[in-house]
Write a structure and sequence with these properties.
heterodimer, A: 246 residues, alpha/beta, two-stranded antiparallel sheet, 9 helices, 9 strands, globular, B: 352 residues, 5-stranded mixed beta sheet, binds thiamine diphosphate, binds iron/sulfur cluster
Chain lengths: 246, 352
Amino acid sequence: MKQVYSRPKSLKEAHFHYCPGCGHGIINRLIAEVIDEMGLREKAICVAPAGCGMLIYNYFDMDTLESAHGRGAAVATGIKRVRPDNLVFSYQGDGDLAAIGTAEGFHAANRGELITVIFVNNGVYGMTGGQMAPTTLSKQVTTTTPYGRDTVLAGHPVRICEVFAVLDGTSYLERVAVNKPAAIIKAKKAIAKAFQHQLDKTGFSLVEILSPCPTNWKMNSVEACKWIDEVMSKKFPIGLVKEVKC
Amino acid sequence: MNGNAALGEAAVLAGCACYFGYPITPQNELTEYMAKRMPETGGVFIQSESEIAAINMVLGASVAGARAMTSSSSPGMSLKQEGISYLAADELPAVVVNMVRGGPGMGNISPAQSDYMQATRGGGHGDYKTIVLAPGSVQELTEIVPLAFELADEYRNPVVILGDGMLGQMMEPVSFDNIKPPKVYPKDYILTGAHGRPSRMVRSLLFDTKEEEEHNWKLFRKYQRIEQNEVRYETFMMEDADMAAIAYGIGARIVRGAIKRLRQENLKIGMIRPITLWPFPAKIIQETVKKVSDFFVFEMSTGQMVEDVKLSLEGKGHIHFYGRPGGVIPTPIELYRIISRHYYQARRRKKQ
Ligand SMILES: Cc1ncc(C[n+]2csc(CCOP(=O)(O)OP(=O)(O)O)c2C)c(N)n1
Ligand code: SF4
């Protein structure tokens, strides 16, 4: 019988710790599949974040380093400058990249560091219990915006891809989602493209992935996936934001 | 050469392959020197967007196997503490230079010794220590750099070189002839891509409390080993001394000038100069108190190292402290007057 589905080599034999319906597990798997398919497992160095994705070193069967909250892009910079032939990527949440680590991400992008950032946008701080993130939508209720995000008081949702797009160092920025099969296939392609841009040395690459957090959105998985289409992607439009051809 | 540039050249000779830094006075000459020299040697130079980014680039470079260094001055060191804590937790080598200036806050850009506590107590969060080396001249600064890289590699731990604005900026003749490239230690933990071997992970996150505790005991045992093996100090005219001055870095240099003068008047003062501030040379102080009852501690702060002297003395001996915070560099004459006053007080007390 032909085997059509199996565990990617780049994933260890471990169970994900993510909540049911969480997008992180899908994204982890997509990265592993892409790395397998591109034959990069023995070349890859992953920088893990603080946030729900922090335990990826339990899942990825590749060289992995933990970084302090928000510092992934700086750490990845240090690694890549020493090991230009490796595939170096950081995995960061929206609190991680769009709040505490804005400076590190922005400047790595501006320098055109030949690294890739996998940016998981779930609109909240997942790990610490669902507080407001910079990407939280206007009027969205979180534990620190109990009356809904008031943009006058708490600012506006940050669109990282659009912000980074104006930086000359960025070569590939795409926003995707993992809320339905067709979107997941596109997300995988985007990850592969981002890695290819790194290998081709065109510049800094980033894939922003809209990812459900049913737990903190207080929805079931189906509602969460729908919410990405109906609400979240209105503020964060899916699609290619920038690609520089080499 | 000025101290900052000499330090940079010594780092190059010691095999430093990566430098990451953010400008701050009084250590800019080092960042500028590395900007010029690293590309010449095939190394990496990045002017980072902040001290936080710089130390995290060091972490990345270190985990990738390179000898990496960053430098700053006091306010910048506060920002680096997060990364230093991670380096210590991950057991990664790195050299971090602090050319101390007057603080707290923005303070001023004049030389000071007020970051002693921050440097010797770990500085960041958690139970960890950094080796702290405190040179007293430009020549010694250059010799301490390869030692710093070697100790960092040997113990897989961040090493801090604690200077100050004066040491960084003063010009002195310097020779690099004695600089031997540091010993190479096996780096079987670095991340190179899991090519032909099992994948590796470097992390400090230990959810399991038992694992976390065992990790901290392991680090503790390493720090004990460092305390046993790596204490460094210098003594000056201690053979017949009945009062021991204790000072480090530039402070010790000024005290030395004062002692030379005091000796001309037959006041029997000597000096113990810690070179490693952590591990602190407690043993020599414990041995000295068997013969010498009075200790004069001088610091360019309101008194930080004096606590280590007290701990070393374990209640024995008399401590005389003099401090000048705020970036003031006292003259040898000033210290000569202060020390002689304390010397005569001690003599009177002993007669009573
Ligand atoms: C310096 C620092 N501040 C705060 C924290 C606590 N913390 C851990 S994860 C996290 C938020 C993570 O949110 P995000 O990056 O959006 O990732 P998610 O959990 O949603 O995947 C915070 C605030 C920390 N570990 N370090
Ligand atoms: S809290 Fe949200 S982001 Fe974190 S694992 Fe659960 S669903 Fe995923």
